[in-house]
Amino acid sequence: MFTDTHCHLYDQAFSDRKSEVQLAAIAAGVKTILLPNISASSLPLLDGVASSFPELKTYGMVGLHPCYVKEDWESELDTIRSHYLKTPDKYCAVGEIGMDLYWDTTTQDIQIQALEAQLDWAVEWDLPIVLHVRSSFKQLLPVLEAAQVKHEGRIRGVFHCFSGGNKQVKRILKLGEFYFGIGGSYTYNRSATDTVIDGIPRDRILLETDAPYLTPSAFKGSKNEPAFMAEVAQVVAEVLTISLEEVAVLTSTNAKKLFSLDA
């Protein structure tokens, strides 16, 4: 069975297709789904996923997405932290957090401050992080490297929807226990991305959809959903020259290790 390590299953895109999406996911071999949080307001929606998709095994995260880091970011973090502390066992990671300088460069300083605060959470709570990095590797990696020194290497996690190249892979691997999320974007321009997959150690590869975003090319024009992860798995199988079953075992084993998921 596959593990979708990054899916916004609580998104409005799924509100009127819950049963259909659930059945399709199970038919495609996707039974376990991890839910990244976006903001304080998305937490109740995330918490309600289990009852809406009862046949799927879901795990939530807590975090403030960098695109939602605005003037009130400190109060947002206070709310999210308080929410986590009420039921800490419900969450498997701090995410999605990070930096996004594609949409707005004016918030760079507060994005860094919010990221540093949430890296502290991850160490305090002994949870992995799920990093969103868009147009910001140059700015984020020094922050993460400094945090690893501060916390004596105790930060671990995944670069969600990894968009870097082999140079970034090598630099990230020097940081410690970090994984790489492979999703729909790896079906778009394989001449550029197959070599990236090939350069990642097999025990650091995770599968994800980021649904309803980043739909694989085979389903272009549709909203992405967990069932479509089979297309991404096929790409990984072809690059690594292993079977789909081996991809499922490999990537699910990696997910269980990083996120301490139930067997």
- The tally of beta strands, per DSSP, is 8
Q: Runs with pLDDT <50, length 5+?
A: none
Structural class: alpha/beta
Q: What's the rounded overall pLDDT mean?
A: 97
Q: Which strand order spans the largest sheet, edge to edge or round the barrel?
A: 1-2-3-4-5-6-7-8
**From the coordinates shown, what is the CATH architecture?**
Alpha-Beta Barrel
Distance between the first and last residues' Cα: 12 Å
Gross morphology is globular
- Estimate percent helicity: 40-55%
- Within CATH, the superfamily carries the name Metal-dependent hydrolases
Number of helices: 10
- The number of domains is 1
Radius of gyration: 17 Å
Strand content: 15-25%
Tell me the name of the CATH class. Alpha Beta
Describe the sheet with the most strands: 8 strands, parallel
Q: What's the CATH topology label?
A: TIM Barrel
Order of helices and strands: EHEHHEHEHEHEHEHEHH
Overview of this protein structure:
- The chain has helices spanning 18-27, 43-47, 49-52, 73-86, 108-125, 137-150, 166-173, 190-198, 229-240, 244-259, and strands spanning 2-4, 30-35, 57-62, 91-100, 129-134, 157-160, 178-182, 205-207.
- The chain is an alpha/beta fold and 263 residues long.
- It has a single domain (2-259), classed as Alpha-Beta Barrel (TIM Barrel).
- It has an 8-stranded parallel beta sheet.
- 45% of the residues are buried.
